[in-house]
Amino acid sequence: MPAVFSSNLLLTLLLTIGLVFFLRAASKDRTTVVDIHSPRPPLEVLNGMSLWLEERGWRQDGGDAERQLLRFSGSVASSRPLAILLSIFAGLGAGCLGLVLRQLYPQLEWWPLLLVGLGPVAGAIYSNRANRIEAVELRLISTTDSGGSTLRLRAHRDELIAMESELSQRLELASDGSLLSSPI
Question: How far apart are alpha carbons 157 and 181 in whole angstroms?
Fold first, then answer.
């Protein structure tokens, strides 16, 4: 096997591995827990957050009065443009692999080029894994004598960032700031 073909095969296989890891990362669960504090009364903070979540399409899914917990759920859809892009990249990558295999093993004739048909599989895998039901949990941890409150939020990282960005001034929310400073 000539060195040029073997190095092309190696690079193509590395691209395939990269695509697999990208598919895993794109549909990974990014649920995070963060504690927030507010000088406002707990009822006011919980009502403000509940209204904001309902405006964003979340629906209340019950809770637990003993644990002072509210649950919201919502359906998260996959990104159609990303699914199409992944399908195109996977088709191109599979076509490149087919061309390399065709050069390495000419006796296979044109059959390796049929690998291009695997392209839409990547988009389908992403769409199936990214479409899911997400949950937001609001739990009252403590109240202070001055009327303030501490809440523990459990939700998708992006939802927590949006909540912190949009509600921090209105409800005087404060956290350790780790969500907005994290590079990931």
Answer: 12
* Category of 127 on φ-ψ map: left (φ > 0), alpha (ψ -120 to 50) or beta: alpha
Interatomic CA distance for residues 72 and 136, integer angstroms: 5
Q: Which residue has the tokens 């998708």?
A: 156
Distance CA 156, CA 137 (A): 10
The pLDDT of residue 177 is 66
Residue of 126, 112, 129, 121 lying closest to 91 (CA atoms): 121
Q: What tokens appear for 139 in the block?
A: 């739990």
Answer for the pair 57, 74: CB distance below 8 angstroms, yes or no. Answer: yes
* Top CATH class, 30-77+132-184: alpha beta
Helices of type H across the chain: 3-26, 42-55, 80-104, 119-130, 157-167, 178-181
Q: What is the pLDDT of residues 128-157, one digit of tens each?
A: 888 888 888 888 887 766 677 888 888 888
- Name beta bridge partners: 63: 70
Query: Rounded to whole angstroms, how far apart are CA atoms 65 and 81?
Result: 42
Q: What is the pTM of this model?
A: 0.69
